[in-house]
Amino acid sequence: MQAIHDIAHKVRRGGRVDRDEAIALYRDAPTALLGELADGIRARKHPGRLVTYIIDRNVNYTNVCVARCNFCAFYRPVGSQEGYVLGFDEIFRKIDETIELGGGQLLLQGGHNPDLPLEWYEDLFRGVKARYPDFKLHALSPPEVIHLTRMSRLSIAEVIDRLVAVGLDSIPGGGAEILVDRVRKILNCYNKATGDEWLDVMRHAHRAGLRTTATMMYGHVETPAERLEHMLRLRELQDESQGLPAVASAKTGLPAVASAKAGFTAFITWSYQPEHTELGGFEATGVEYLRTLAMGRIVLDNFDNMQASWVTQGGKVGQLSLAYGANDMGSVMIEENVVRAAGAAFCMDEIEIVRNIENAGFTAKRRNMHYEILGDPVFRERDVPRMLALAVARHDGDTSRPAELASYAARSAAEKRLRRSDLSEG
Ligand code: SF4
Questions:
Q1: Is ligand 1 within 6 A of the CB of residue 51?
Q2: Is the CB of 192 under 6 A from ligand 1?
Q3: What are the backbone dihedrals phi and psi of residue 140, each rounded to the nearest 5 degrees, phi first?
Q4: Bridge-partner residues for 363, per DSSP?
Q5: H or E element in which residue 87 lies
Q6: pTM
Q7: Coil, helix or strand for 94?
Q8: How far away, in angstroms, is 421 Cα from ligand 1 center?
Q9: Residue whose CA is at the smallest distance from ligand 1 atom 3
Q10: Which of the two ends of the chain, N or C, has the fewest CB atoms closer than 10 A to its terminal CB?
């Protein structure tokens, strides 16, 4: 325990832990000690006992996916009767509902659908920005960007540039799982993006001046050391991105300025949800979640924000996260499809999130993706509808196909067959 005592002392003084120290802490430190160390870092980085949250909507534009990760209960193979693609009008309606609830952003992610080319995304983003110029698009995780590079045969930088040109504001950190290729091969997600490819998309996004988030899904086939390896890889890229010349400086030719306001905004970790998945198994416990979150706060000393994952852990553990390093309650979930497909459907609207934050002794503030404070809770300023159940991407049995799909060339055999039969019926 002497070693743990020395490492804890180093952390309390603001020191950076190395790999061996992180492994020793994660393996041997009592849970209460990890909480105390993580809470101390949170308090140093966020004085004033503010805890933030964002109102946005998690929209999954398609569930059709060729990647077939074995931990995923959400995707449907190409040609499945249960496959869907949302129409542009459906997405605009979801934006209207989000704005009504005080939200200003979509978290837009989906499957790797071979029948949605880069132009489909460009038209969608353009359409959103034409109708809602101030509305933000936090969209397309790194594996989706990689999928688009393969479909379009463009480089990562070219795809990101094209998406930014039509309104991409930031990139969510989905699809990271564990950034160790041994694990990715077992999870069948190595082909969708290797660990290096995931990091490379984020590196390019940071260079293009975009902020992004980082995630980690643990509790399946990885070892504790591999979880820490994942965190160390993120820390290394964050060091690199924060040392980059600011985008404005590069354009004006002014000297490089290292910026803490570059790179990843936040780290979000959650446990693997096993229900209805090919991989199966058990879900990690609440204590394991709190220990892992606390380690994230301790290891990722160059990240400002840690989100509580109440969507997978439930409101009660989500609230406890605020004592284990989290300074943010994530999103008021208006809609959720991916985690729900794997068996978790916790729902908290703004009133409930704020109640949990205040009951833990913090002040609740609304924020945007950049963690800029937008103000007090919306429901204290005006009447907003209560949301006691999560919306879904598509209601069961709705098999409608958006008309605009016909404007894009079909690539899969299933989609080509469907179009031929549409034509012969028409
Ligand atoms: S996790 Fe994403 S990429 Fe993997 S199968 Fe599910 S939808 Fe496809």
A1: no
A2: yes
A3: 65, 100
A4: 50
A5: none
A6: 0.93
A7: helix
A8: 28
A9: 67
A10: C
